[in-house]
Predict the 3D structure of the following.
Amino acid sequence: MYLPEVFGLDDDVALDVVARARLATVVVSTGAGFEATPIPWMLRRSPDSTLLVGHVSKANPLARMLSEPVDAIVLVDGPDGYVSPSWYPSKAESGEVVPTWNYVSVHLHGRLSVIHDAEWLREMVESLTIRYESEREQPWSVDDAPADYLDRMLRGIVGLEFVVERVEGKAKLSQNRSEADRAGVIAGLRAEGADGLLGEMER
């Protein structure tokens, strides 16, 4: 991606963006072009590796094309939003301001593999479920489903493991503007209720 230094994120900060994300798109090259699939991934970091794990239906074309590991890219989009030039105090000084778009985006380059192991699949599905159910008043558990039904569902999916080899992180959040203009953008986002993008700028 186009990555001016002022907007660059170091790898650890970029991976924090990935960890907060709920959905990301994996893209692989095929003989017929590109296959792009949005997937709810989970990030797993260790001293030795950085992985994304997830799953797709066996009916998904992606599942059928992964007979061996392939190069892939995962696109992770954080909050984004329009920035009005009317939010810049500098507008009153020169008028030399234009609209722009602020956003956070991370591109992960690596190798994508398919996993069929039943125990791995169940653990991954349980972990993904816990992530999104744990804060609910009455969280649903994988064990709430009848065992035979769950077995059928698990037989209908394949696991995906993406080994991260390179990270590109970008946070275009008005860092190239003056402190006063950045404060104006924050005030504008707050007034419009753009909490996600506002949180990234404040972070």
